[in-house]
Amino acid sequence: MTAAARKPAARPSALDVFTLRCWARAQLYAAGELELHDALDELQRAAVERDGLVAEVGQDAVQKIMSKAFAKVC
Questions:
Q1: Contact call for residues 44 and 62 (beta carbons, < 8 A)
Q2: Cα 18 vs. chain centroid, distance in angstroms?
C-alpha cells in the first residue's frame, strides 16, 4: 500500500459542513419535516455556538449561505 493510500482524507471545513447542513435542513423543510423557523434557528445557533462561523466569516456570510439553501425550496 502506498503512503498516499494510507493517508486519511482531509477533514471538511466547518464552512463546508455548515453549507451542507443548510441544504439538508432546507430539504427537510421542503418535505414538511421541519418548520422554517425551527430549521433556521438551529442553523443560526450552530453557526454561532458550535462552529464559530459568525466570528470567522461574519453574520452576513452565514445568512447568505442559509438564504441560498432555502431559496431553492421556498
A1: yes
A2: 2
Amino acid at 32: G
The pLDDT tens digits for 10-58 are 899 999 999 999 999 999 999 999 999 999 999 999 999 998 999 999 9
Work out the burial of residue 33: count CB atoms within 10 Å of its CB; fewer than 13 is exposed, 13-18 middle, 19 or more buried: exposed
pTM (two decimals): 0.84
Q: How far is CA 12 from the centre of its chain?
A: 12
The secondary structure of residue 10, as a DSSP letter, is P
**Would you list the DSSP string of 8-73?**
PPPPPPHHHHHHHHHHHHHHHHHTTSS-HHHHHHHHHHIIIIIS-HHHHH-HHHHHHHHHHHHHTT
